[in-house]
Specification:
The protein is α/β, with parallel strands linked by helices. The chain has a single domain, classed as Glycoside hydrolase/deacetylase (TIM Barrel), CATH 3.20.20. It contains ten helices and six strands. It is globular. Bound molecules: zinc ion.
């Protein structure tokens, strides 16, 4: 049976509790990567999400691209969100299972240069490219030494602060690049591309325009239904997309994908 972790970005919003109730009804666990500014706006809902058994991850305070920020500013942005998450767990009376982070836009400090693309073996590069080309405008231009240094420093900082990855068994050969499997920020192995269905993006020239298109993307993914390797699925918490969220998660569950609870035991 194929297994996957459900990771939900950009929470909390006005619909987060609806999403939680939907997931809870189907016994689907998930991690919500929350923005600090959104936690401030929906603090009580964040507390309720924790009480309902969902895990809160850190998605930065202001959802800014790390490439344009100094190292100190990125650290400050992550820390500010950390404090809010701690407060929410305290208010819920629940012990935090672990510290988990995902960079906004997967910008790990070098913009669209998510991993060292020029160090990827030839057979793997197109797979990683496809994976991250999901609206991220990948650029193969090697970033400056200073940017690469910032990227490494941010990984050291995450390690020093005790961040871990809450996923196990994500063992696709193409995921084994040291900057993916051994990194301390969460990437993904499948993006639902749900964001393409917001009104703003429907006007643009993206390849997916309808829920049926996105179900087709799920059905035709070469890795999502693997029995040997667990997946990390990316979807978003956006007010505009509540029906899309339910349709896509429902479709994955009906297609036989079992969603796994995130764990804090993994030592990268
Ligand atoms: Zn985001």
């Amino acid at each position: 049976m194929p297994k996957a972790y459900l990771t939900i970005d950009d929470s909390p919003t006005a619909i987060s509790l609806n999403l939680c109730r939907y997931l809870k009804d189907q016994n689907i666990p998930a991690i919500f990567y929350c923005r600090g500014d959104n936690i401030e706006q929906h603090f009580d809902d964040t507390v309720e999400m924790i009480r309902m058994g969902f895990v809160i991850g850190n998605h930065g305070y202001a959802h800014k691209r790390a490439v344009g920020l100094d190292y100190e500013d990125v650290v400050e942005d992550i820390s500010r969100c950390e404090d809010l998450i701690d407060k929410a767990y305290d208010a819920a009376g629940v012990k935090r299972p672990g510290k988990y982070y995902r960079f906004p836009y997967l910008d790990r400090g070098c913009g669209a240069w998510i991993v060292d693309f020029d160090k990827l073996p030839d057979d793997i590069r197109p797979i990683i490219h496809d994976l991250f080309a999901d609206g991220l405008y990948l650029d193969d231009t090697r970033p400056t030494e200073a940017l690469r240094e910032k990227k490494h420093m941010l990984q050291y900082w995450l390690a020093d602060k005790g961040f871990t990855l809450p996923f196990e068994g994500v063992t696709f050969p193409w995921y084994q690049h040291p900057q993916m499997a051994s990194a301390l920020d969460a990437l993904y192995t499948f993006s639902t591309s749900d964001w393409m269905l917001t009104a703003r993006h429907l006007e643009k020239d993206h390849p997916y325009k309808t829920i049926e298109d996105l179900k087709g993307k799920i059905d035709s993914d070469p890795y999502l239904f693997s029995d040997k390797h667990n997946n990390i699925v990316l979807i978003h918490d956006q007010v505009e997309l509540e029906h899309v969220f339910k349709a896509l998660v429902g479709h994955m569950a009906a297609s036989g994908i079992e969603f796994l609870p995130v764990s804090s035991t993994h030592q990268p």
